[in-house]
């Protein structure tokens, strides 16, 4: 089993040996990695890099990281504007996914790009970009502009897609990204002038259950939400105890048991540290009706860690997450017991487990 870590200082790879993890190598040393994706069809590894000086760069490896080639990153068409008078340019590549014959990349400032030639060229999805709500009701949260961080594909139909946008909400397409509809019914966001507005919500991460694709989960700025009817309605399933399951960035799901999910709670808004300075991973076994705080092996005092959107992953019964302070923890029993993998890494943006 391999562990891929996209960090502020490069792409770092570990291999599992017995019950421990062994450092293998790194790539793109000292360059922030904002995105990592494995294409299960072609075997390609993709990495999005966020150079402070040179801007956003897209790299691909066809031999599991032995060699890399730079390929053209998405570009906003000339004349594209985030808002009137504010030109659009690529600031971040945040999510990547394959859907049938297409590849998609979600970006900041809120553009979704598609490729029909395995990444040789990219085209902006104009129906989403031209959504009448985008300029007036989409807005930035952690970033200055809205951003697409989640792309989920229905395993029954590669033309059926969902995306998560901060701050706009969940959108759905039934025609491979040609047209899109808002899917935020039931959502409530207290930071909005109208908390139940159709558009303007802030899903931090969206996950579709592959074994039961009518069920979707999201860790939201305002709690944890689940839809059991293909995003037609969203239900608030946060814990009454905000230290267990409420604000957070990341979520993992059990793709064989749609009632199981994991979140990592934090303190909201400008604070953004572990609740009570005690690190916790919370698990539900009943679709969010109840939550269990899994703390064994995790620091429970003076802990300033928080876990970003893509920095938690699950494979079989293995869970791994990385934090903003460069700590990486792993569990082999779905979170009951945690072990420290490393306390000396850069800030972790992405965690990916590979069989």
Explain what the structure shows.
The structure is a single chain. The protein is mainly β and 355 residues long. Helix content is 2%, strand content 43%. The chain is built from 2 helices and 30 strands. It has helices at 126-129, 134-137; strands spanning 2-7, 10-17, 20-27, 33-38, 45-51, 55-61, 69-71, 81-83, 86-87, 92-99, 102-108, 112-115, 123-124, 147-153, 161-166, 169-173, 181-182, 203-208, 216-220, 223-227, 235-236, 248-253, 261-265, 281-284, 292-294, 312-315, 318-322, 328-331, 339-342, 348-354. It has a 4-stranded antiparallel sheet with strand order 3-2-1-30, with no helix packed on it. Strands 4-5-6-7 form a 4-stranded antiparallel sheet, with no helix packed on it. It has a 4-stranded antiparallel sheet with strand order 10-11-12-13. The chain is globular. The termini are close together.
Top keywords for this entry?
mainly beta, four-stranded antiparallel sheet, 355 residues, 43% strand, 30 strands
Summarize the structure in short.
The protein has 355 residues and is mostly beta strands.
Into which percentage range does the β-strand content fall?
Answer: 35-45%
Distance between the termini: 5 Å
Average pLDDT for all residues: 97
Would you tell me the structural class of the helices and strands? mainly beta
The residue ranges in which pLDDT falls below 50 over 5 or more consecutive positions are none
Main β-sheet description: 4 strands, antiparallel
Shape field: globular
In which range does the helix fraction lie?
Answer: under 10%
> Number of helix segments?
2
Query: How many beta-strand segments?
Result: 30
Oligomer classification: single chain
Q: What topology, given as strand order, has the largest sheet?
A: 3-2-1-30
Compute the gyration radius: what is it? 19 Å
């Amino acid at each position: 089993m391999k562990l891929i870590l996209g960090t502020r200082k490069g792409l770092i790879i570990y291999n599992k040996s017995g019950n421990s993890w062994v450092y293998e190598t790194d790539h793109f040393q000292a360059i922030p990695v904002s995105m990592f994706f494995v294409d299960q069809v072609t075997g390609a590894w993709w990495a999005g890099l966020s150079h402070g000086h040179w801007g956003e760069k897209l790299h691909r490896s066809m031999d599991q990281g032995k060699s890399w080639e730079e390929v053209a990153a998405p570009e906003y068409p000339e004349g594209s504007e985030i808002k009137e008078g504010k030109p659009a340019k690529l600031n971040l590549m945040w999510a990547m996914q394959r859907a049938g014959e297409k590849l998609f990349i979600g970006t900041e400032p809120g553009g979704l790009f598609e490729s029909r030639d395995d990444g040789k060229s990219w085209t902006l999805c104009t129906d989403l970009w031209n959504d009448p709500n985008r300029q007036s009701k989409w807005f930035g949260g952690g970033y200055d502009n809205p951003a697409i961080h989640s792309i989920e594909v229905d395993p029954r139909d590669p033309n059926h897609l969902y995306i998560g946008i901060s701050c706009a909400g969940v959108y759905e397409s039934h025609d491979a990204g040609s047209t899109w509809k808002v899917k935020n019914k039931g959502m409530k966001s207290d930071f909005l002038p109208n908390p139940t507005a159709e558009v303007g919500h802030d899903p931090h991460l969206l996950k579709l259950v592959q074994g039961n694709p009518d069920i979707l989960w999201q860790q939201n700025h305002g709690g944890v939400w689940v839809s059991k009817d293909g995003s037609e309605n969203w239900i608030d399933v946060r814990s009454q105890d905000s230290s267990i399951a409420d604000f957070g960035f990341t979520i993992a799901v059990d793709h064989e048991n749609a009632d199981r999910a994991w979140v990592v709670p934090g303190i909201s808004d400008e604070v953004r540290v572990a609740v009570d300075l005690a690190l916790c991973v919370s698990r539900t076994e009943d679709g969010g009706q109840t939550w269990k705080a899994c703390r064994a092996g995790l620091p429970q005092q003076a802990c300033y860690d928080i876990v970003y959107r893509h920095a938690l992953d699950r494979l079989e019964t293995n869970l791994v997450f990385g934090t903003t302070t460069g700590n990486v923890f792993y569990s082999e029993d779905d979170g009951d017991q945690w072990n420290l993998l490393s306390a000396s890494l850069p800030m972790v943006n992405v965690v990916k487990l590979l069989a």
